[in-house]
Amino acid sequence: MTRHHAVEIVLTRPAAPGELQRILHGMPLAASADRTRLMAVQRAHNPGGALHLLRRRLDSRLPIDVLTTHYPDHRGQVLLNVALERTAAAAIRQAAAVSEQQPQDFLGQRVTAALARQERDRLRLLEARLEDLLAHHTPEEVLACAAGTLLSRHHRRSPTAP
User: Fold this and answer.
1) Quick check: 50 and 44 in contact, CB under 8 A?
2) Opening angle at CA 82, ends 76 and 87, nearest 5
3) In which band, very low, low, confident or very high, does the pLDDT at 160 lie, cut at 50, 70 and 90?
4) φ, ψ for residue 71 (rounded to 5)?
């Protein structure tokens, strides 16, 4: 069954107004204010197919960096479509062969591990900073200050213009 899939397109530079106008004649796109991110809807049997079809349609017309599905698939994963340089692609294929995996599985595991590592590092940094604060302030002071800061940030945000 063919379904529609929402795809986010991240560009390497802002799209020129002329580039967007030429593409808009062939397909509807929504652009961010700075024209570096676009949203499109692509018909395909599955999310991976939607990314592949959109890459083929737009790759020669826009400076595409990454295509990604906007919603998770049936396994709860967001899919990425990245065009790699030949040397990078060859290195990934070689490393995947050594570990007896498909290149996309190998790369997916590496990206997932790197994101998890980054999240752990950020959490450790936050905990260290909090421990430093607690060495000089009571938990009540830290909590009151954090709540006040978060509330003032929330109230300072202006509503987005239509």
Assistant:
1) yes
2) 135
3) low
4) -120, 145
